[in-house]
Amino acid sequence: MWPITTISNYMKIKVSAPGKLMLLGEHAVVYGYPCIVTAVDKRLYVQAEIINEEEDEIITPQVKESRFALESIAKFKENYKIKNSVRITTNGDFSHNVGLGSSSAVTVATFKALSLLFGVSISDRKIFDLSYAVNLKIQGLGSGFDIAAATYGQTLYFIRAGKAIEPLNNELLPIVVGYSGIKADTPYYVRKVAETFKAKKSEMERILKAISYLVEQAKTSLKVKDFKTVGRLMTENHNLLKNLGVSTDKLDKMVTTATSAGAWGAKLSGAGGGDCMIALVSEGRRRLVEKAIENTGGEIINVSNNAEGVRIEK
After folding, report:
1. Do residues 163 and 263 lie in contact, with contact meaning Cβ atoms separated by under 8 Å?
2. Domain that holds residue 41
């Protein structure tokens, strides 16, 4: 155990973790099938410091709930026998409203910040495992793909609970992201799919297996930068998500409009019910696709992908 007495009460540690976008495989990943997720350059920042108080203090205006930070602190203290109280302060480049994974980012960043604050050496894999445990405790479900993106960054081929975490490339993907203006309730839509799965198991298995097949094809195509094929696979993925009942008229319109304007492909990104859609598009068609999405009432979110994972900030 590292000596707590050597740590200054005035020491502050600041780290950040990226948000995420799901390229292919949402919902199927909950059932053990693979997905492809990419980290984005919109980041969530966490500052940690030791305080002379009886209780921990959480200042988290960027995330929907302070519970993710609170549970992360509790989990860290339990694992590493820490007695000191801490103050966690967050801010970020994005709001929890847009569905880029602020809760996962704040969880990962909190564990990283606390490890540095208390001189505890933990690997990225350990940060992932601890963060995934917090996610399951709070939400009771989830695959961990958003936690993997926040931890490792890049574009990842991922299987539930980190059974596979494989970087696919380190180059920017030509994406356009549109926000629907509606905040999605991820746990609700995950439970909705689960209920449908129980009622229509054979049909649901067929859809989820079809999604996993698209993911495997996209994995191969991404490695050779065949974005035209990846785009087509994304559109097919969106149509399967419509069959799962998780899309909306607004998202469908944004996707259709984007492809009509020349995008290689498009789909909702995330649990559905709102949040963002994502299009893969050539630079020559980018502005046309952006205008088409805006004309449907969507808001363009300017992001780059393949972002660095959790890191120390000066």
Report:
1. no
2. 4-170+306-313
d(CA 279, CA 62) in angstroms, rounded, equals 26
Give yes or no for a contact between 269 and 55, defined as CB atoms under 8 angstroms apart. Answer: no
- CA distance linking residue 282 with residue 297, whole number of Å: 22
The answer to whether the predicted template modeling score (pTM) of the entire model surpasses 0.90 is yes
Question: 240-267 pLDDT, tens per residue?
Answer: 999 999 999 999 999 999 999 999 999 9
129 is catalytic: no
| Judgement on whether residues 160 and 15 belong to the same structural domain of the protein | yes
The alpha helices in the chain, defined as continuous H runs, are 67-80, 102-117, 124-139, 145-152, 186-199, 201-223, 227-244, 249-260, 286-295
For residues 277 and 204, membership in a common domain is answered with yes
- Give which of 22, 2, 171 is closest to 83, Cα–Cα: 2
Same domain for 189 and 164 = no
Count of residues making up the chain: 314
CA dist 294 → 30, 98, 135, 199, 255 (Å): 32, 16, 34, 38, 12
**Catalytic one of 41, 56, 146, 249:** 146
Q: Cα separation of 85 and 234, whole Å? A: 46
